[in-house]
Amino acid sequence: MIFAHRGSSGTHPENTMLAFEKAKNAGADGLEIDVQLSNDGEIVIAHDEKLDRTTNGKGYIKDCSLQKIKTYNASHKFVEQYGKTEIPTLKELFDWLGGNDLLCNIELKNSVFRYPGMEEKVIRLIKSNMLEERVILSSFNHYSLVQCLQIAPELETAPLYRDGLFRPWVYAAQIGARAIHPNINVASDYVINSAIRAGIKVRPYTINSKASMEHLFQIGCSAIITDFPEKAIRIRQQNS
Ligand code: G3P
Ligand code: MG
């Protein structure tokens, strides 16, 4: 499968509805998105804790109300191409997901700030939209993933990691996860094959080169997470 990393972020402003629309139209199987909490407890889709890199705002998302966050432009670096785009909320994305069948990997960005209550809020929204079968919860904070399963054992979780975790498929099973999301630098063929044999899915990130995409499709990796879903789909078609 092909998951569009922050939407089609290689071609469109990351984590915006523009990037999600592009991923859907390109034929991606799913999205990978990042979530943070505003100071009034709204779940907003943004990679960084701060507004500075991707918008014309400044400061921490956790210190802003949703109303304030909505005044900023999330496509300010692409303004000539795309004009103004708001930072979307998870609720807005879920409304849109109701009209298609994309999968959605929600990365809880709760390593820098713990965002108490984030797990409950995200899961409540998943359940009220009946998206349990279409979401995967991931995080670099594995305590948070265990907490998610305590709240909703039916959900799929996937630990993210960047370093050389020893036998990550054993570890995943131990924390109740059904998948692992390794950085490509630590996703060796051995890790991928062993995990898949053990019934644990593997979705490495961020796979942008043709050679890497071809290799992962050839060895039967479960999915890739890429900034360029359109390119990945073309390569998957050529290799099938
Ligand atoms: O979920 C895969 C990937 O997004 C993890 O790293 O920093 O791009 O959110 P990052
Ligand atoms: Mg992410």
Folded structure, characterized:
This protein has 240 residues and is of the alpha/beta class. The protein has a single domain (2-37, 91-238), classed as Alpha-Beta Barrel (TIM Barrel), CATH 3.20.20. Helix content is 34%, strand content 17%. The protein has ten helices and nine strands. The protein has helices spanning 17-26, 66-69, 79-82, 90-97, 118-128, 142-151, 168-174, 189-197, 210-218, 229-238; strands at 2-5, 30-37, 43-45, 103-108, 135-139, 156-161, 179-182, 201-202, 224-226. Strands 1, 2, 3, 4, 5, 6, 7, 8 and 9 form a nine-stranded mixed β-sheet that branches. Helix 5 links the parallel strand 4 (103-108) and strand 5 (135-139). Helix 9 crosses helix 10 (229-238). The longest helix is centred in the middle third of the chain and has 11 residues, at 118-128. It is globular, with a radius of gyration of 17 Å. 44% of the residues are buried. The mean pLDDT is 97. SN-glycerol-3-phosphate is lined by residues 5, 32, 34, 47, 107, 138, 160, 181, 205, 225. It comes from Peribacillus cavernae. Residues 1-236 form the GP-PDE domain. Pfam families: GDPD. InterPro entries: GP_PDE_dom (IPR030395), PLC-like_Pdiesterase_TIM-brl (IPR017946). GO terms for molecular function: phosphoric diester hydrolase activity.
